[in-house]
Amino acid sequence: MENRINTIIFDLGGVLVDWNPEYVFLKEFRGDREKMNWFLNTVCAWEWNANQDAGYPLSKATEDRVSMFPEYEDLIRMYYGRWEEMLGYTHTDTLQILEKLVNDPDYRVLALTNWSGETFHIARQKFEWLQWFEGIVVSGDEGMRKPFIEIYELLLSRYEVNPAEAVFIDDSLENVKGAQKAGLHGIHFRSAAALKESLTKLGVKFN
Fold it and tell me: 116-123 — which CB contacts under 8 Å span 24+ positions?
């Protein structure tokens, strides 16, 4: 008999929370999206930001980049100096799904996020619903990040989760594949409606 899903694990950014450096930098580049994208792909690149999600200090990361691109110093310092402005709204349609699951005693609800430990407290202050989770594993606090298997195994061990009875939801396909390697069911998030359909197919009930 197939194991019943009893644990749902959410990613946060892109699934429940909107976060986008564009909120700061599009104005700084006077609406020139091409120049902004070059900056975010070359100077303050996504791979660079991911390193901080794994626990690298924000101040050191900033100085590293300033030494590499001194002509962009002011803009580089804005990345974490104005980070809170990049933190947008809650995806309310996904939040409705989360709320139903949290209030159903048949399910445990956890979160696993790639997020700097130095900035996550800002999100906790802004989004009261983060208190709904039984537990949240923050990559920056652990010194490891998705999609590497160690962080999934850490969550499974810490909260005594059977991966065969758990599903992980993330807007990054790479992170979903990482979860599947750890034995979890995986859902690549595209929309709240599609998420609810995928959870229902796995036997998750919405009362």
Answer: 116/52, 116/53, 116/55, 116/58, 116/140, 117/55, 117/141, 118/52, 118/57, 118/58, 119/58, 119/80, 119/83, 119/84, 122/83, 122/84, 122/87, 123/12, 123/17, 123/87
Mean pLDDT of the chain: 96
Residues whose CB falls within 8 Å of the CB of residue 113, separated by 6 or more in sequence, listed in order: 11, 12, 13, 120, 136, 137, 138, 139
* Beta pairing partners, 8: 109, 167
pTM of the model: 0.94
- Tell me how far apart the terminal alpha carbons of the chain are, to the nearest angstrom: 23
Q: Does the CA dihedral 174-172-112-64 come out positive or negative? A: positive
pLDDT tens profile 51-97: 999 999 999 999 999 999 999 999 999 999 999 999 999 999 999 99
Distance CA 188, CA 105 (A): 25
- Only one residue has tokens 């101040």, namely 59
Whole-angstrom Cα distance, residue 31 to residue 202? 44
SS3 of residue 20 by DSSP: coil
Per-residue pLDDT tens for 6-40?
999 999 999 999 999 999 999 999 999 999 999 99
